Amino acid sequence: MNTSVRQSELFTKTKKETPTDEVSKNAELLIRGGFVHKEMAGVYSYLPLGLKVLRKIENIVREEMNKAGGQEIFMSALQPKENWEKTGRWNDLDVLYKVTDSAGREMALGPTHEEIVVPILKNYVTSYKDLPKALYQIQDKFRMELRSKSGILRGREFMMKDMYSFHSTTEDFEKFYEQMKGVYKNVFERAGIGHITYLTFASGGTFSKYSHEFQTITPAGEDTVYVDEEQGIAINKEVLNDEVLGQLGTTRDKLSEHRAIEVGNIFDLKTKYSAPFDLTFTDEKGGKLPVLMGCYGIGIGRLMGTVVEALADDKGIIWPEAIAPFRVHLLMLGKEADVAAEAEKVYSTLSRASVEVLFDDRADVSAGEKFSDSDLLGIPYRAVVSARSIKENGIELKKRTEEKGKIVSIDELLTCLK
Amino acid sequence: MNTSVRQSELFTKTKKETPTDEVSKNAELLIRGGFVHKEMAGVYSYLPLGLKVLRKIENIVREEMNKAGGQEIFMSALQPKENWEKTGRWNDLDVLYKVTDSAGREMALGPTHEEIVVPILKNYVTSYKDLPKALYQIQDKFRMELRSKSGILRGREFMMKDMYSFHSTTEDFEKFYEQMKGVYKNVFERAGIGHITYLTFASGGTFSKYSHEFQTITPAGEDTVYVDEEQGIAINKEVLNDEVLGQLGTTRDKLSEHRAIEVGNIFDLKTKYSAPFDLTFTDEKGGKLPVLMGCYGIGIGRLMGTVVEALADDKGIIWPEAIAPFRVHLLMLGKEADVAAEAEKVYSTLSRASVEVLFDDRADVSAGEKFSDSDLLGIPYRAVVSARSIKENGIELKKRTEEKGKIVSIDELLTCLK
């Protein structure tokens, strides 16, 4: 990935107009900024700026999964019908896209990968000595959402990290599950939304009474959660009952209600998927037992959309440093030769120091437009070179989240960005 | 990506048996080595070792595309039917998978992306000043191959790099096209098959009389090509005629016949796809002209399969260094405490020096099995720690392509791998 890019060479441009067919803030801002392109409801292509953000989120997730002992794989989107029939989900899963070839053979288009990962493991697991294992991938998923109007928060096609863990004992599973809570916390901290993201007690779906979600507080959320600030945890509205309150040692008067987006979840699958595929292992005594499983998801695109929804202000996006497409947005204001020369000098100095910089070197764009584009794009630092900054012997540096900038020398700029 | 891995912790294992449902060498060796898992004909999942190779090829391709001025994007697999109707390919393209949702709406599952990239560009190109541009992605493609028996050489789902270039003049297009020939040459050189890969004159399909392919010589190839060794070029059998011989300044007696695999292609699309979408630009005189296009493909998985077909010997795979899953396969032979201690020391020394190493630390596996696994996996360097190597004060180092190893000290080992 190129660390430095000239805005004049980028093929995308910002747009002033709000797209008429989008109701969500994330889609509006990401399309206006040239981060994504809408193909149809719930389906987006990622343009250079958007892909840079997506890849940074991917890499944070990948590093944390590797640290947790996950082994990365890449499973197919086309999946055998037989596998889905075995788990009963060929007919039961509403969101499953089915693909038929001209010979009449049917396949599934993967909305999730339990039906694929379990048969893979079956090739390699025979004994308790082969366990535990954790496998993950970062890959495109397909789900038949009939109405999609949440931008990249809920798509028909979306990038997701899905991890599956395999254990010989409940104790071992529970240890890993607890560890994953911390791993997920790290991911959301590193992605810049840790302070508004809560481990949330939620419904377990069909195969487990309860599960854990990570919910990020933002008015655009589809879910309602009740936050216990003191404990730093939350309860999804759907499971707010006395049993849960008791289990978590909290009471209704300690809770505050918020709208939230689910940015990750962890599930106890037990033997729900290992049983139909007969994924078993031989224990120390020679007995044959089903493998216990957990699954752990994070929507990469959804996390990107959540950051936009939760952190943007009325001028545009605000990217946390760790996932911003660039660290610095360098603006050249004015066409004077000394301004251009100084801006080029700052650009090459930052590039040589491996600071990721987007250089707005466009000659035919007004200062006002450059400032509003910069606010829209949401790069953490804005560095301005203008006749005024040169007169003051420096560069005007401002954080996206600050109201006012200050004049710094090129050395001070490098120190600030260290 | 973890640079060092203990074989005892890897969830895959090698297999002695040849899979019964595979006729291709690449699938046989890749499945036996635990690089890939077959989901169904033409559909494979990539396991940790295979994904490492795939990512290395991806990164070589990405670096070369960036150097050529390409901007990376990521386009959707789900594609609007209208776009495919506009180009006439909704009904004409045999390999197109169509997906229908429960509301009866149809979509295409992308086999290629002209129908997506052109509408994206239409948002951003208005003037000749916006050109040239080159966009590329590395992404999963779907093609309805009714019979698939070439392993990862020709799949129904496969990872591909597709680039599209956009120009205002034929001259500019031709300059870029010539440049891309060199870029492709670099890719195949770096991937370790440059010496057997030829720029090949081929049929242009429906929209151009001729095109260029890159063909790698190997008996498993589906194509027949005629190589002019002196010029270092080839001609695909389908266009071997006097016109082509004349154009290339060669004669039939200078050509040798070979089987070959097409590992890349570059096409002059002219206005074939810009016209139906009305992708135009305003020239310097204010006239409105259609944008000229080129397209440039490399199958990432196919390149991986080609390397296996072309370079493997009867013991197993031989990975070129630049795309090998690891640089060194460290084998611990024997259970003696001093052997284990020495092997651990070598492993941590190599790991600290950032040498990618697979450490066969398995305690219950014989020396013979370890050697044959090592040959099967095809890692470039094999380093053996055994009672014998310790007696000789060193480590036995052997390249996968060499018959005999030599004893080296740990310092010499590091120097060899520098």
Automatic annotation (TrEMBL), chains A, B:
Domain of life: Bacteria
Domain Aminoacyl-transfer RNA synthetases class-II family profile: 42-320
Organism classification: Bacteria, Candidatus Nomuraibacteriota
One BP annotation, GO: prolyl-tRNA aminoacylation
Annotated PROSITE patterns: AA_TRNA_LIGASE_II
E.C. numbers: 6.1.1.15
Keyword Signal set for record: no
Entry keywords, A to Z: Aminoacyl-tRNA synthetase, ATP-binding, Ligase, Nucleotide-binding, Protein biosynthesis
InterPro entries listed in its UniProt record: aa-tRNA-synt_IIb, aa-tRNA-synth_II, aa-tRNA-synth_II/BPL/LPL, Anticodon-bd, Anticodon-bd_dom_sf, Pro-tRNA-ligase_IIa, Pro-tRNA_synthetase, ProRS_anticodon_short
GO cellular component, one term: cytosol
Protein name: Proline--tRNA ligase
Natural source organism: Candidatus Nomurabacteria bacterium GW2011_GWB1_47_6
GO molecular function (one): ATP binding
Name of the top EC class for this enzyme: ligase
SUPFAM superfamilies, per the entry: Class II aaRS ABD-related (SSF52954), Class II aaRS and biotin synthetases (SSF55681)
Catalytic activity: tRNA(Pro) + L-proline + ATP = L-prolyl-tRNA(Pro) + AMP + diphosphate
Pfam families: HGTP_anticodon (PF03129), tRNA-synt_2b (PF00587)
